[in-house]
Amino acid sequence: MHTETDRDDAAARLRAAGLKVTAPRLAVLDAVSGHGHLDAEAVLSRVTVALPGTSLQSVYNVLGALTDAGLLRRIEPAESPALYESRTGDNHHHVVCTRCHAVADVDCVVGEPPCLAPSDAAGFAIHTAEVTFWGLCADCQRELAG
Amino acid sequence: MHTETDRDDAAARLRAAGLKVTAPRLAVLDAVSGHGHLDAEAVLSRVTVALPGTSLQSVYNVLGALTDAGLLRRIEPAESPALYESRTGDNHHHVVCTRCHAVADVDCVVGEPPCLAPSDAAGFAIHTAEVTFWGLCADCQRELAG
DNA sequence: CAGTTGTTTTGAGTAATTCAAAACAACTCC
DNA sequence: GGAGTTGTTTTGAATTACTCAAAACAACTG
């Protein structure tokens, strides 16, 4: 499901970010890529398949390094542990289910990033606008209706 | 700084919410009202002045009850513990300082609440849009410039 | 003012994450 | 291609913010 080239790409991106290329980093990158929004535990269980023996602490280290490097994005919705996703650089937003905490992406609401600018910002120099929508996901709507 | 009437109002609002009127609840309400965005520890230290011996656990209980009742609003910005404010019901937003975590209010950006509606919401039935701006507060701008 | 029910306290427990030091592996340079 | 340096991973412990549970207590009801 993932090619030789994928791994080379990942290695190149790590190097470009000034990070050493290591097995745990490749494994984490692969675990998160295209798999939605994962917390550290979920990343660990995916990583463990490819690289048994990896510690949770390493997963935290790697997730932190990759996030700082801009290769992953971290979101922290209320009531959830930190979640990581591979879609970076486009300032998209999120919908979170108030019942089961499922998360989905939402494209930028008002044109280009940063999407929104407050009129009065209390003297803050703003660089990011983060939008979180809250609602019921399709599954939970169904369960509550049924 | 707070009148007899303030306390009566607070008691009335508690009763209206179906909650018993107790000293810790009045003290917490008073501690949070008009004092920005406080975490549980900060609430405790303010409460302790008026009501020594109050436990942190009680502060958590009270903050939870008051939030559920809609008398307080809870926000949970990334990297900060939960913060409580007395301004409820107007769906205003927040700016958070990326350096010192100071928080300020921002009025609703695009007209009336809920302010925003995503075009595609991945099947979610959305009821709230939460906006968090990130930037440098005035103090931190000054310190970095100086 | 006695009873009931909800609240507060005390004390312990948990989840998610961070800190620190030692073992180890990737890249650099010869 | 092997030694050295530096960054990474592991192991183990600690911390923060918060929740759970049971007993002591206080607010409202009649």
UniProtKB/TrEMBL annotation, chains A, B:
Positions with a binding annotation for Fe cation: E112
Cofactor: Zn(2+); Mn(2+); Fe(2+)
Ligand binding (Zn(2+)): C97, C100, C137, C140
Keywords: Cytoplasm, DNA-binding, Iron, Metal-binding, Repressor, Transcription, Transcription regulation, Zinc
SUPFAM superfamilies: Winged helix' DNA-binding domain
Subcellular location: Cytoplasm
BP terms from Gene Ontology: negative regulation of DNA-templated transcription; regulation of secondary metabolite biosynthetic process
Pfam families (alphabetical): FUR
Note on how the cofactor is bound: Binds 1 zinc ion per subunit. Binds 1 Mn(2+) or Fe(2+) ion per subunit.
Gene3D superfamilies found in the cross-reference section: 3.30.1490.190, Winged helix-like DNA-binding domain superfamily/Winged helix DNA-binding domain
A molecular function GO annotation: DNA-binding transcription factor activity
Principal location listed in the UniProt entry: cytoplasm
InterPro entries: FUR (IPR002481), Fur_C (IPR043135), WH-like_DNA-bd_sf (IPR036388), WH_DNA-bd_sf (IPR036390)
GO cellular component, one term: cytoplasm
Family, as annotated: Belongs to the Fur family.
PANTHER family assigned to the protein according to its UniProt record, in alphabetical order: TRANSCRIPTIONAL REGULATOR FURA (PTHR33202:SF18), ZINC UPTAKE REGULATION PROTEIN (PTHR33202)
Protein name: Transcriptional repressor
